[in-house]
Amino acid sequence: MKGNVFVIGLGLIGGSVSLAIRNTHHETLITGYDVDHKNLRLAKVLGLIDNEAETIKEGAEAADLIIIGTPVVQAESIIKELAMLDLKDDVIITDVGSTKKGITTMAACLEEKGYTFIGGHPMAGSHKSGAIAAKPHLFENAFYLLTPYEGTPAGQVENLKDWLSGTKANFLVITPELHDHLTGVISHFPHIIAAGLVHQAKNCHSEKQLVSRLAAGGFRDVTRIASSSPQMWRDILLHNKDVILQLMEEWIAQMEQVKHMVQGQEADEIFDYFATAKRFRDDLPVKAQGAIPAFYDLYIDVPDYPGVISEITGYLAQENISITNIRILETREEIYAALVVSFQTESDRKLARDCIQKHTNYETILT
Ligand SMILES: NC(=O)C1=CN([C@@H]2O[C@H](COP(=O)(O)OP(=O)(O)OC[C@H]3O[C@@H](n4cnc5c(N)ncnc54)[C@H](O)[C@@H]3O)[C@@H](O)[C@H]2O)C=CC1
Ligand SMILES: O=C(O)C(=O)Cc1ccc(O)cc1
Asked: What's the pTM?
């Protein structure tokens, strides 16, 4: 597509969307604005945008597509500001926020002025932030949820998908209410539980040192998302209050049930509790992408000697297999250590397993 794109807030998500648009729509001019001037400069230097705007008005009034990439709270005041400007008649305005009901309610003021607002949520990310962390392929294979109004012309939704096609995400159109409920269940509430588990380990004062050492393995994996941005998760919880409170009631009732089973030593019920969870989890599609892309981890049992990491990465590099992360599980004190190497895709993970099996006799495990 041709035209002017204006990105407000060039952080991890706004910057990544901008790069994906740049890679696909070569005749498009992308202008950026960010309250953090250093970050805006960096976005220009890194090639996330073509031009810097001094004000929102300057970039917005010339734009065919406006992307609000700021945290959800700021997005609401930006929507109010945009509604007071003289925007192009057929402009599309979208956002990237993790919650949708509040933002789409606020954006009714844009609809009243005849502008198209389509809520957006690319369901991938990380604990990193700022323009420096932006990647054009961040959303590849992830779900990208869109929440148009009932009256939004279908052509405008298609136009937005076209603009965003470079993300290579899977678009799904749903209502803001359903969005907030689903993301509450699969994303927002799990972040609260992950933080809760970390708090519980942290409060284990007497054996503090031992807890930290033992928690380095599986516990660390289960609580990975507790390392996400506290500001962002504060805003998400404040915005998705009703859904979170309802899920919390259900969770507390469930924990009460488990508590009673344990108090009453109800072995069969406890077994059923785990067996039902196992069945549901084991039946989740392994090959299909979930809402948030999984991490494709390969565990490699390697001898604990200096240079073993470069040996492994060397074999993978020889066969052009890209890795996204590498770390050592530190819980074990024997001579063997587990190296966990993460890949962007399932096929890379399998290629890596074959590569390591070809070059070494180290055991590999796909989880
Ligand atoms: N980080 C993640 O994993 C994901 C985040 N999201 C959503 O994306 C949004 C942005 O998150 P990130 O990119 O991670 O944050 P970020 O902190 O990397 O970027 C936000 C940017 O917005 C700028 N900004 C803040 N207020 C502004 C204002 N009033 N005007 C202009 N610029 C302003 C900041 O300076 C910063 O550069 C949030 O609403 C979040 O809920 C959605 C999916 C994943
Ligand atoms: O990496 C993860 O597991 C995430 O949870 C990333 C994420 C964070 C916020 C979103 O709104 C969507 C995705």
From this structure: 0.83
